[in-house]
Amino acid sequence: MSKTAKIQIGEETYEYPILEGTRGPKVVDIRSFYKDSGMFTFDPGFTSTASCKSEITFINGEKGELRYRGYKIEDLVKEHNYIDICYLLLHAKLPTKEQSLEFDNELRHRAFVDEGFKNLFNAFPRTAHPMAMLSSAVTALSAFYFDHLNITDDLGFEEMATRIIAKIPTLSAIAYRRTLGIPLIYPDIDRYFTENFLYMMRAYPGGKFHREVGQIAPTTVKEIEVKALDTIFTLHADHEQNASTTTVRTVASTGAHPYAAISAGINALWGRAHGGANESVIAQLEMIGDVKNVDKYIKKAKDPNDPFRLMGFGHRVYKNFDPRAKILKKLQDQLKEELKLDSRLLEIAHKIEEIALRDEYFVKRNLYPNIDFYSGVILSALGIPRNMFTAIFVIGRTVGWISQWMEFKKDPKAKIARPRQLYLGD
Ligand code: SDX
In what order do the strands lie in the sheet with 71-72? Predict the structure, then answer.
């Protein structure tokens, strides 16, 4: 195949190099096209545009393949916990036992937040959406921890990364407890990352737990719950140049500090076309209410004049099963009995999947269930309310955003993101 691409416009021929990565499609390097031709390319939604070079996450949409730093997601969830995945994404290699213990220890000690955050959260009404509180609190980190506003070396990167990854679960749990009007629970350094989050969500003040009559304090959090949520965090950890990661890189390109970039990523993720879909999936299953209504809603989803879409279906990149969805579906089956998953919602979800996967409308458009289609039923069974689902996505994805932010900042050729337009005005 030729090493260059030619663009013929009238009498002029413009030639551009074809660059090849280690995996995935080649790219035509058209960075000088405007300078050469006085014309722009046009690609709203970036359906055919590579915005950067990266070594972090690779997706093969046709095959339904996802790799973090070259490792297949199916292998990673089997053999590693979430904080090892964080280490892998940040450092491009899996940690040794010692490195894992040291990283775990760092995260436990940095999980605490300044007492001033109590005033910030108490300023919100109890009706505030946790995502509104979380994105505000992450921006506010820059006011309390300003030693990371200007990072100049690897130690600074690492410290900033550990600090944000460690504090986001604490801030998320405080946001949840604010919606209930109950006091926050401090992190417990004797608990692993994921267990600590569920503890901060559930415990009574003083770290106690609800007791059935005659029951001594139950184990606060079951091992199977920690494993399930840890897998969910891992599946959400990174996903190439999705909308919220592109937002984080765009904010990074202006020179803004990491807290501003992560807060922008949180707000981009909130949209129901993106990370907000997990909350919408459960709302949609509740609205459908019964398997006998599924046909009516499939019809609505197919109607070009009806804005209704099947939440949790379709993906810009996956034109096959989202591998994360496959893993979550298996997890649902494993947890069904143990965690008493909502069988009514499961039945509706499976009916939707069964009909959609053989319906010509969905098959022709390669619309498969994505990660959001299956996560909500498990999160509900863990006692996590629907308005906290996207915050769970944030906890998992923060390491991906930071890894991508760091990769951008370390690129000596990085430029400010500044696309142009096709102007149709006066
Ligand atoms: C995430 O990018 C990532 O990597 C994101 C993510 C990550 O980990 O970061 O994977 C997380 O955001 C997953 C996606 C969650 N969103 C949803 O589940 C919302 C429902 N899905 C869609 O709105 C949609 O599928 C998108 C937004 C996910 C993808 O949209 P695209 O790629 O822009 O596709 P499109 O809107 O151009 O749709 C192509 C066709 C259209 O029909 P035609 O115009 O060709 O007739 O498919 C149809 C769409 O109408 N279509 C759907 C549909 N999704 C697409 N029809 C019904 N139901 C749907 N869900």
Answer: 57-60, 65-68, 71-72
